[in-house]
Specification:
Elements: H1 5-14, H2 19-32, H3 36-43, H4 48-79, H5 84-93
Length: about 90
């Protein structure tokens, strides 16, 4: 029984830090570096239900990484010598 590329990717996603998972991440990263036209052209070859599931999965990752982004911003702000109170004051004045 053969698996589709998408089914294979879902199985590999479950493996932790396997070479296949790392390569899949690199593939996604490279896809993200392509032009909108190339991405859309490739996406047209994928069934709509699969595209919807992929979009849902990406949205889940984006939501889970928001805290990571906030933490990075907080560190950058602290590194620049801006206090929490100064930031709150600035944000409340806007």
């Amino acid at each position: 029984m053969s698996m589709t590329t998408y089914e294979m990717a879902r199985v590999l996603e479950q493996l932790d830090e396997s070479p296949e998972k790392i390569m899949f991440g690199k593939l996604l990263n490279e896809l993200g570096n392509q032009s909108a036209e190339r991405i859309q052209s490739a996406a047209k070859q994928v069934p709509v239900p699969v595209l919807r599931d992929m979009v849902y999965q990406f949205q889940q990752v984006i939501e889970s990484r928001k805290d990571e982004q906030v933490e990075n911003l907080a560190k950058q702000i602290a590194d620049q010598g801006i206090s929490v109170d100064e930031l709150k004051s600035y944000l409340s004045s806007k």
